[in-house]
Amino acid sequence: MLTGLLTLLGFQLLGEALQRLLGLPLPGPVIGMFLLFGFLCLRGEVPEHLETGSQRLIDMMPLLFMAPAAGVFFLGAGFADQWPGFLAAVTLGTVFSLIFSGLLLKTLTKKRDKHGAESQHD
Prior knowledge:
mainly alpha; 0% strand; 6 helices; 122 residues; extended
């Protein structure tokens, strides 16, 4: 598990370094995730240590959302006129994420099924 977490942090650090060196407009962690995605595509599979480490982070995700939720609660009047924009952003972000995830899953499943069918014929 520790190896997986260190791998994730390493890609984030690499993304941060590239962002600062090249002055890219994307945040470093996003660049790191793109690099990790490219690495996994080239490898063709997710290493077990990375799967274990990332699953552990996913299990802890609710804890990561507690602090921002508590912060929004205490903003009070300063946040009162921003609720429509906040709700629209959350709703649209959720809808787009669901659509993208569904299409990606469909594409990857087709690719896996096609690859599995070719392996059975050999």
